[in-house]
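Weekly structure sync, notes
Attendees: PL (lead), two postdocs, one rotation student
Agenda item 3: pending single-chain targets
PL asked that the sequence for the first pending target be pasted directly into the notes so everyone works from the same version. It is reproduced below exactly as submitted, 268 residues in total.
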Amino acid sequence: MALEPAVVFVHGMRTSSAIWAPQLAHVHDAGYDAVAVDLPAHGERRDERFTLAGAFAVIDQAIAALGADRQIALVGLSLGGYTTLAYAAREATLAQVGALPHPGRLAGVVAAACCSDPKGKPVALFRDVARVTVSGATAAERMGRSAASRWRRSITGRGTRAGGSDVAALLGATAAAGPYRPGWDVVTDALTHLAGRSSVADVRATRVPVWLVNGSRDHLRLEEQRHLAAAYQGALVVVPGAGHDVNSDAPDAFNRVLTRALHDFARH
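Predicted structure, written out during the meeting:
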C-alpha cells in the first residue's frame, strides 16, 4: 500500500469539480494521485438528481478508479464537506459490521466550510426559501435576510443582523464554476437530504483524522468547536481573511493546510 494517500475532492453546492483546479495542480505537483468529482446534479452529472446515496456512489467510483489498494483522503467543501463526513461515518459503520470490502482504505477527511450542524430546523428554513419561486433580486434578497435571521436566532438564541450572503454561503450560491450552473431545485434536494443528518454525529462516528478548515469570515463557523470536540483525531484551522469558499478565497493558504493534513494522514 502506498504511503501517501490518493486524494478525492468533492465540491460545494451549485458549483462543480472545476473549483478544485488550484488544489489538483498543487497535489499533483507534490506527487499525489488525485481526482475531483462532480456530484449528482452538478457539472458532467447535471442531468442526474442529487441524493446522498448518489453522492456516495460517485465517491465510490472515484476511489475504485484510484485503486482498491490505495488509502484515500477525502477533501470536501460546504455540501462536499457534509457529504464526505457522512461518507466517512458510513465507512466506519460498515467496518464495524464487517461489511466493508477494503477496510482501512480511508486515511482522513479535510472538511471545509461545513461547521454548522445541518440537522433540524435551520436547514429546513433554507430549504423552504429555495422552494419558493421569486422574481427579482430584491425579493430574493429580502427572503434571504429573513431566513438568515431566523437561522441565526435558532442557533445563537439571539437575533443578529444577517444579509443575503448568509443564505448564499449555506446554499453554496457563490460564483459559478464553469459554464453550467444548477438551478435552485438542486438546493431543495440537497437540503432535504442534509436536514435529517447531524454533521457532528458524522464526525463522532468517523475513526480517521478529520481536519476542519474554515475561512475567518465564514458566518457558518458557529459550531466548529463542537465538531472538533467530536473528532476521533481532529484539527481545526481558520484561514485569515477568507470567506465560505476558503479554497478559492485563499488558495495558497488552503494548499499549505492541505499539505499538512495529507502528511498527518500518512503518519496515522
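Discussion points:
- The chain is about 45% helix and 15% strand.
- Residues 216 and 240 are 5 Å apart (CA to CA).
Action: rotation student to compare against the earlier draft before next sync.
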